[in-house]
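Ticket #4471: structure output looks truncated?

Reporter: J.K.
Steps to reproduce: submitted the chain below (167 residues) through the standard prediction queue, then opened the result file.
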Amino acid sequence: MRSLILSITGSLIIFCSYPEKTGTQNDHFINKAVQRSNQLAESGNTLVSAVPAIWQGKYSAYFSYGDIAGQNAGWALEINITKDKITATGEGFQMAFVDELRAKVSGSKLILTHFKNVSGYNRGKGMNPEFTLINDHGKFYIQSKWIDSDVITKPAALGYKIDRSAL
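Returned output as attached by the reporter:
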């Protein structure tokens, strides 16, 4: 009887015993054990655990810097929230990123923290939280360090207005 211990970054350790086999049978068993351990590790990194329906939808806003060199400069933010995945996309003037986020509900706020950068600028991982959505009786606002203080539209008391629609 042989033993195989698979260790994964973090605290998950898998120990299994298997009958001694020859050549490809042994390799096949080890490959299956590694695949299973990878599945277990990935399942522990769930982005969100069921975002409440009140928060699900598409959030969008445009942040303008005004006229720069004869062009309207600014950037668009879109946050898509389903029950099990959240992505934020920023595109525009000197701005391009796609991040996956995790969510935590705190009263009338949905706190969105960085999970991973999919593409573009990787500034989001240094922000905690990356975004905060606020629901004020069906009107939605956003707060984030992504939004520069020199955008033309100034924030309301709760943050910048953001539109919400169905996905």
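Triage note (M.O.): checked the attachment and the full token line is present. The first helix runs from residue 23 to 43.
Status: closed, working as intended.
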